[in-house]
Request: fold
Amino acid sequence: MKDLLQQRAEHVLNTNFKDEGEFTIPCENLYPFQWFWDSGLIAIGFAHYDMQKAEKEIKTLLKAQWRNGFIPHIIFHTETDSYFPGADFHRSNLHPDASSEHKSTGMTQPPVTGFVLKEMYGISENKKSTLEFIASQIDNVFDNHNYFYKNRDPQNEGLVYIYHNWESGTDNSPIWDDIWDTMNPPEYDFERRDTTHVDPEQRPSKREYDHYLHIIEIAKKHNYSDEKIAELSPFLVQDPLFNAMLIKSNESLIELYELIGGNEDKIEQLKKWQEKSITSFNDKLFDEELGAYVHYDLRNERPLRYLSSSSFSPLFANIPDSEKAETMVKVMMEKFGSDSQYLCASFDPTSDRFNPKKYWRGPVWINLNWMLYKGLKQNGFDTIAQRVKEDTIEIIENNGFFEYFDSRKEMHKDNNAGYGGNNFSWTAALLLDLLKE
Ligand code: 2M8
Reply:
């Protein structure tokens, strides 16, 4: 008999799966399309009980890939005006390589697909069939990595940039405040939709949205040309979470190509990328004083010296050596791990920019917790990994399948500390994975 929590999680995923398009929305009304990294993480959940749906999810995502290997962050499979900004604002067709069949944004998201395929293989009870599926898709993922190294690494460092906070996935992190301080965008006139679905206190401000839209206007003016964006975008950041996802996916692609057999040149290329990326990542992004990884602002040539859950995500990609890993985990426990906090707040709880109710400025997110759990375990921190897992299951069980949760334990007394969207897909998907561990 499946336990109740598992049944509830499957119900969330099944309800959010849209038959007509063969993809899963992150959340009804709030996010009514297919999102890149959501889709990948959702496939991990499906893999536990419906491998066909997991495969469909990935196939649909990769069908929207552009000719240059780029995968967009949102694919607008359906028409609805419950989300802003939609397809008409983004106008992906400005780029000559964009898919003519699928409307999308002209920005991307953390490249999770490589490691997602590996997770699906690990979960599968029919390895032969799953490997056949992987073999039919893997070159598209390789092309996506090729896109990143060719177009997003102007100084040839092995570290790729993101040009928009929406590419980071951690949309309104306090880290971006330092970038907003360098900009002064116009006050645009537009109608937000997110704040009709969710309490505005839990979402970014109107002024923040002006910044978000302004960067897109610049990119659109230049038809989403990577060269022009690298030259002109006020937001150009090397993000440790984003790069850790790429590195983890490189590692998985190497393992999967080896299982499939052949493909020596691709394996060799991946190994070259991998070596260069890991070396630069450690040299450039590790902050000795803070004892963890930080973001680097490529536009203004300065590190952005803040601790967030992204600072610890490189554990998942096996980037730190054992000494760095020890230091990071100590810092994480000192700053984020007090008895009054659930692990792991998305931003440093000891900072005055911390806001445990507002989106990516402090609440606990299940996707980051999942990565942290895996990363801690891989590096031998079993007890802390166990705490992350138990905290995660407890907050979902008590509050429901929310998008994010208050990190302060005192706020959980009435089981009313889940925020943002409800019945949220990756919360359900990754819980299913944690329950199977
Ligand atoms: C959030 O971002 C979207 C824009 O991409 C939004 O606020 O409208 C983020 O949490 C992002 O990481 C996530 O992929 C997306 C859908 O769940 O929602």
